[in-house]
Design brief:
The complex is a heterotrimer of chains A (330), B (395) and C (287). Chain B is built from 14 helices and 14 strands. Chain B has 395 residues and is an alpha/beta fold. The N and C termini of chain B lie far apart (74 Å). Chain C contains 11 helices and 2 strands; from the N terminus they run H-H-H-H-E-E-H-H-H-H-H-H-H. The longest helix of chain C has 32 residues. Classes of the chains: A mainly alpha (330), B alpha/beta (395), C mainly alpha (287).
Chain lengths: 330, 395, 287
């Protein structure tokens, strides 16, 4: 019983320029000298990781119209995969552990998706939440999996490749650039996907699933694929989180993490992935601001969320479109 | 102005504003002679009361000695950790890397402590733990710069076994939540109870944070032990006390617990808690001049009654003072700082306690019985109880 | 497990299930009839409990507190519907999720500012503050039976309301086809407002009568929310009958799970849900 709101898929030129400038700014950021440079590099790295997480959710939510309240499960699983894969004495290689972790998350998404994708609407929302809780409790209740205290990732993975030791991931700056590159790659990949035949089918499913079925598409398969792909991409983000912080715990798979991701995507504007990035940055930034400001920051945060949802339903991208002008399609 | 120029200038303005904004939180911290103290506590959420009590106690300790550390003025930095382990590292880094605190006091929740611990070990910043009892902080992962001023999860229950056997309760059932803190509390109980000759007939567990006790209370009745030993805290503890009494089990089966069972919840539990025996390193009713003075001063300052958390916060302050004063305010003088803290004997409202080699308090455990909504101390359950420090390379 | 034990555990599951039902009924109504995802439902439970505590302290009687509390809760529900939710019926589920999540933050912090963060107790009314001895060790608190009774009464009342009254008929019509019902001259806005207030009221009452059992503390709302969702999913969205059956099932699985297979007790209920979804993706009962 909900009307899909018109989404911005083709970005206005102004926004495209902004994005390009933003990318350059991000690339140049670590070079800005500052007393607490390390902290800020870490903070922005974390924002970028969350941007990847938000983009993966945008594929599911914004493009395919599947609102998942349990997406963090795949995020956290990859972090845990890294923790389990890393032995006590040496770091492992990024080159095989990252794909493996992402694959693991994708596999989990495939299995859970099989149960969950057959449901629709409100059902889907609640069922995804419940399954994520199940994964949460699986880890929380079992000492063998780390239990409620979580696990340390003993060493950050290294990026050595056939003797070439180019990127030092142990340094803040090295890890920052790795994350930046991955974020841009994921963005480019998803934008490509959005306008590919596969992406067009997903968008069609979002707008009117019955029609797509009537035209002959097997929507279950497409939805499941989207779910799995989104899970795998969330895994990329989760792996990076575990690598950066060096500590994973069940909360990473919890309800609050999922809800935060949803907020980021909506804040930014759904369906175009640029919004997901903008939303992740904006959300984290606002939260930092509020926390620094007052003890009752939760009140501010809650009011902020309500205001955004009431007055800016198409998020930052919607506002940007109004300010910078719609792109005239030739 | 052409559209292109308009777009570009507007974009530039937005980016400029955003970048300036990004650097905003880093309010330029003038080089000052002040010593930076970071407090990472739960200021919101379920543990907000504990966070507040700890901070109150801590501040009181500092203010009693002139509000200075080693002669230096203090600048405070606070972060609300929301008892959320996922944000632990980020929050700790805020204090350690952005605000560049000289000492980090925190926290309450064990999961969050795991995050702080990682940051503390990697950065070398002095970390004083005012509550979190997670074992690894003073065992396998102990560190020269991490000190605990509270307890380890198994300490209170290490003193529980003997009093139970002394009262002839030879067969017991243990019940708690199935999570890290519950497991660690069980470790202490199992060790002390079996060592004293007791038999644990069954170990019952509830998934955290489930508080539907009825099923397991029925089970306990069927098992008919001499006594029940447990670990609960907060809202769950209040509910368990009430449910236990309402089910009539308290008539025949004595209830014992790690002291947190009756901390801060006696008002809520009411008459249901009468007669419950617990062990803890502190009690409100401890009848010593030191405790009485502490309580008087706390009530005057904060208009509310202190609890074990306030004492732990207070002791964290005393510990820090010892170290900072010995180092004369220069916390980079590790030799003096650690030397003083390692050998510290703290004159605490809970009684005197000293630091173990693995940096956990060696302290007396009191046996308390609930009488008229109060934890009356009826004896000492264990003298100089120490955490094993197993796996700690400093011990 | 002998027969006596089994029967007592059955009683335990029933009582827990009935309380769950009361919470889930409100949620499934709001979901089913207005199509609104409401993550703040647990907060209404918490608000009810705190209201019960506050007014029992002021007025000295739990029953009076429940009356006053219910009026206030229903008024709050009505206000929220008029102010916010009304504008969200046509919106994306996504937006609803976000709105209600923001509300949870606001409710939690307001509660902290108004009433603090301590654990509080609500006294069981003297009349029912005794226990029936079941075995030599175990007694069953009469208040729990009272709670179960209230839940049953409310369930029956709800059933009668929805299927036997004109209001119920209008509600069902509105759920089936809003435009047509409006076209027939029925004030659907009023109906929706009523249903929302009813849902909120049910959650608050659940919190109020459960308060003497559960104690009143921060975070009590979030712990019941997920269980509520599971019940609604298993039972079928919009089906009150389904919510009842599902709640009792969950009560059984939770109770016997803890006793028989404690190692997986935490996951047992979710496994039940997965099983149900495998065979009936829309839950046990349709609307």
């Amino acid at each position: 019983m909900s009307t899909p709101k018109p989404q911005i898929e083709i970005l206005p030129r102004g926004v495209q320029v902004l994005l390009a400038v933003g990318a350059v700014a991000l690339a140049a950021f670590p070079l800005v000298p500052s007393e607490s440079a390390g902290f800020y590099q870490q903070m922005v790295t974390q924002m970028m990781i969350l941007a990847i997480f938000a983009m993966s959710l945008d594929l599911l939510q914004g493009v395919t119209g599947l609102v998942s309240l349990g997406h963090a499960a795949y995020f956290g699983l990859a972090g845990y995969a890294l923790a389990f894969l890393t032995p006590a004495d040496v770091p492992i290689s990024l080159w095989w552990s990252l794909p493996l972790a992402a694959l693991g998350s994708g596999l989990a998404a495939l299995i859970i998706g099989f149960f969950v994708v057959r449901t629709h609407g409100i059902y889907f929302i609640m069922v995804t939440m419940a399954f994520a809780q199940m994964v949460f409790f699986l880890f929380f209740d079992n000492r063998a999996l780390g239990g409620s205290d979580g696990l340390y990732v003993n060493f950050r993975p290294h990026a050595e490749l056939f003797g070439w030791n180019g990127i030092n991931l142990d340094s803040n700056i090295g890890f920052y650039y790795l994350t930046l590159v991955l974020m841009l790659l994921v963005y480019a990949f998803l934008r490509r996907l959005l306008f590919s035949p596969f992406g067009r089918v997903l968008a069609g499913i979002r707008v009117n699933e019955h029609r797509m079925r009537a035209v002959g598409y097997s929507t279950f398969g497409y939805r499941l694929t989207a779910f799995t792909l989104a899970g795998a991409l969330a895994g990329v983000a989760g792996y990076l989180w575990g690598a950066q912080t060096g500590y994973v715990n069940p909360e990473l798979m919890g309800f609050h993490m999922s809800a935060h991701a949803i907020m980021m995507v909506i804040l930014g504007g759904t369906g175009n992935f640029a919004g997901a990035i903008a939303g992740a940055f904006a959300f984290e930034y606002v939260m930092h601001l509020f926390k620094d400001f007052t003890k009752h920051w939760q009140l501010l945060m809650g009011s902020f969320i309500v205001l955004v949802v009431v007055f800016a339903p198409r998020g930052l991208m919607g506002l940007a479109e109004r300010v910078l002008g719609k792109r005239k399609i030739p | 102005m052409t559209t292109r120029r308009l777009v570009l200038t507007r974009s530039a303005a937005v980016i400029g504003a955003a970048s300036a904004g990004l650097l905003l939180p880093q309010i330029v911290r003038a080089q000052s002679d002040k010593l930076r103290v970071g407090l990472m506590l739960p200021y919101t959420g379920t543990f907000a009361q504990l966070g507040k009590a700890i901070e109150n106690g801590f501040m009181m300790a500092l203010n009693e000695q002139g509000g200075k550390l080693g002669g230096r003025e203090i600048e405070f930095f606070k972060v609300d950790d929301e008892a959320n382990p996922a944000k632990a590292i980020e929050n700790a880094n805020r204090l350690v890397q952005r605000d560049k605190v000289d000492v980090l006091v925190g926290t309450v929740h064990s999961g969050v402590q795991m995050g702080i611990h990682k940051v503390a070990r990697e950065s070398g910043v002095l970390n004083i733990i005012p509550n979190a009892g997670v074992h690894m902080a003073t065992r396998a992962q102990c560190a020269p710069n991490v000190y605990r001023a509270s307890f380890s999860n198994s300490q209170p229950t290490l003193a529980l076994g003997k009093p139970m056997m002394d009262r002839g309760h030879k067969k017991a059932v243990w019940i708690t939540w199935n999570y890290a803190a519950g497991d660690e509390a069980f470790e202490g109980f199992e060790k002390s109870y079996t060592a004293a000759g007791g038999t644990i007939i069954k170990k019952l567990g509830l998934p955290f944070p489930n508080v539907e006790f009825q099923a397991l209370l029925t089970e306990i009745a069927a098992l008919n032990p001499d006594a029940v030993a447990c670990f609960w805290a907060g809202g769950g503890a209040a509910k368990f006390l009430r449910d236990y009494a309402a089910s009539g089990l308290n008539k025949n089966i004595q209830l014992y617990g790690s002291g947190f069972l009756t901390e801060g919840v006696l008002q809520a539990a009411g008459p249901a808690a009468e007669g419950v025996l617990t062990t803890l390193h502190y009690s409100d009713s401890l009848d010593t001049p030191r405790n009485k003075k502490f309580r008087r001063d706390y009530v005057n300052a904060f208009k509310s009654q202190p609890d074990v958390y306030a004492v732990q916060g207070y002791d964290s302050g005393l510990l820090l003072l010892k170290g900072a004063n010995a180092a004369q305010g220069d916390l980079s003088n590790k030799k003096a700082l650690y030397g003083a803290m390692d050998s510290a004997v703290i004159d605490s409202p809970r009684g005197q306690w000293s630091m173990s080699p693995s940096h956990n308090p060696i302290q007396d455990m009191y046996l308390r019985q609930v009488e008229n909504n109060e934890n009356k101390v009826i004896g000492i359950a264990g003298k100089a109880v120490a955490d094993s420090g197993a796996g700690c390379r400093m011990a | 497990m002998d027969l006596a034990n089994f029967l007592i555990q059955l009683l335990n599951s029933l009582q827990y299930g009935l309380l769950l039902f009361m919470l889930a009924a409100g949620l499934t109504l709001i979901f089913g009839i207005m199509g609104v995802v409401n993550l703040a439902h647990g907060s209404f439970y918490m608000i009810g409990a705190y209201l019960a505590w506050f007014f029992t302290a002021q007025l000295g009687s739990l029953v009076l507190a429940i009356v006053v509390g219910t009026v206030l809760a229903v008024a709050l529900g009505w206000l929220l519907e008029w102010l916010l939710f009304r504008h969200f019926y046509k919106r994306d589920h996504l937006d609803q999720v976000l709105l209600t999540f923001g509300l949870v933050y606001i409710f939690e912090e307001t509660r902290s500012i108004l009433w603090g963060d301590d654990v509080h107790a609500v006294q069981v009314p003297e009349l029912v503050n005794w226990s029936i001895p079941l075995t030599e060790n175990l007694s069953y608190p009469v208040y729990r039976l009272v709670v179960a009774g209230v839940c049953i009464a409310l369930a029956v009342g709800l059933y009668l309301l929805i299927s036997k009254t004109r209001l119920g008929m209008k509600i069902r019509a509105g759920a089936f086809n809003r435009e047509m019902t409006e076209a027939l001259g029925i004030n659907i806005r009023l109906i929706y407002g009523v249903v929302f207030a009813l849902g909120v009221g049910l959650a608050a009452i659940a919190g109020m009568i459960a308060a003497p059992l559960a104690s009143v503390y921060p975070g009590m709302g979030s712990s019941v929310l997920i269980m509520c969702f599971v019940v609604v999913v298993i039972g079928g969205i919009g089906s009150v009958r389904g919510a009842l059956v599902a709640a009792l099932l969950v009560g059984l699985v939770d109770t016997f799970g803890k006793v028989l297979v404690p190692q997986i007790a935490g996951m047992a209920v979710y496994m039940l849900m997965a099983l149900v979804l495998l065979y009936k993706p829309e839950g046990l009962f349709k609307q």
